[in-house]
């Protein structure tokens, strides 16, 4: 079943089209990587899907009421901005009040512990390191157990151990709650571990819609695939080696 259907959306700035037209179907329980070089339109596409940015033309159909997006979607964008004065505890309490009737207290407490956020409660959010801040972002996008998770460069600023912990945690949550995953990432290991489908964007349009298994079968690795799609470098066949 399609949970999100994208119909010929475009995005323009000052009359210049930077995204689209794009048409896609995202099915329930699928795991999709939005892949491509910087400036390809990946984040813009996710912002439109998440209803945090309006498309210039086209439409998006959801399998749920649009007003329920804050409860159905978990959103973790790379450049989330918070007020300078707010502490981690104040930020978490603010979100808790919004979702208080939509969450399970035991899940909320368990995730606080899993992300080790109590030790950061007194810190101002904007004083956190990249890894600490991303832990907060991940918590805020997952504690309400969304059915769709949209993540934009979720492992940016994380050390290797924390990155592995995040990937393992997402795998666990996706499996437990049958979450539909839409992931923007340049981390090839992250895509390999979390995603089945790849949508490759270049200059604002989809140039490939395939699967991770097909890519690795044809190209040998996601890196070789990425290089061909962005730089035109052809994969070396096994026969030519």
Q: Tell me the number of strands.
A: 9
Largest sheet: 6 strands, mixed
- What is the string of helix and strand elements? EEEHEHEHHHEHEHEEHH
Major sheet: arrangement of strands: 5-6-7-3-8-9
List the helices and strands and how they pair.
Layout: E1 2-13, E2 16-27, E3 31-35, H1 42-49, E4 57-62, H2 69-72, E5 73-76, H3 88-99, H4 105-114, H5 130-142, E6 148-152, H6 160-177, E7 180-184, H7 188-194, E8 197-202, E9 205-211, H8 212-219, H9 222-231
Parallel strand pairs: 3-7, 3-8, 5-6, 6-7
Antiparallel strand pairs: 1-2, 1-4, 8-9
Write up this protein.
The C terminus is likely disordered. The strands form 2 sheets. The chain has a 6-stranded mixed β-sheet, sandwiched between helices. The protein starts with a strand and ends in a 10-residue tail after the last helix. It is α/β, with parallel strands linked by helices and 241 residues long.
List key phrases describing it:
single chain, six-stranded mixed β-sheet, three-stranded antiparallel β-sheet, disordered C terminus
Produce a short descriptive summary.
The chain is an alpha/beta fold. It has nine helices and nine strands. The strands form two sheets. It has a six-stranded mixed β-sheet with strand order 5-6-7-3-8-9, sandwiched between helices.
């Amino acid at each position: 079943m399609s949970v999100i259907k994208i119909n010929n959306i475009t995005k323009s700035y000052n009359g210049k089209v930077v995204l689209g037209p794009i048409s896609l179907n995202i099915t329930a329980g699928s795991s999709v990587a939005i892949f491509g070089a910087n400036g390809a339109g990946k984040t813009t596409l996710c912002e439109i899907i998440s209803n945090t940015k309006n498309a210039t033309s086209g439409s998006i159909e959801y399998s749920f009421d649009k007003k329920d997006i804050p409860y159905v979607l978990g959103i973790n964008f790379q450049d989330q901005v918070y007020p300078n004065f707010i502490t981690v505890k104040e930020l978490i309490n603010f979100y808790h009040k919004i979702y208080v009737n939509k969450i399970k207290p035991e899940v909320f407490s368990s995730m606080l512990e899993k992300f080790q956020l109590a030790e950061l409660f007194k810190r101002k959010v904007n004083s956190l390191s990249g890894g600490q801040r991303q832990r907060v972002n991940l918590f805020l996008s997952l504690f309400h157990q969304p059915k769709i998770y949209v993540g934009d460069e979720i492992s940016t600023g994380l050390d290797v151990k924390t990155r592995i912990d995040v990937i393992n945690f997402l795998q666990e949550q996706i499996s437990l709650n049958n979450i539909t995953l839409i992931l923007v990432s340049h981390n090839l290991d992250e895509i390999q571990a979390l995603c089945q489908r790849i949508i490759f964007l270049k200059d604002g349009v989809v140039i490939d819609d395939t699967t991770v298994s097909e890519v690795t079968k044809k190209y040998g690795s996601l890196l070789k695939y990425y290089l061909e799609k962005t730089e035109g470098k052809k994969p070396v066949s096994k026969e030519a080696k």
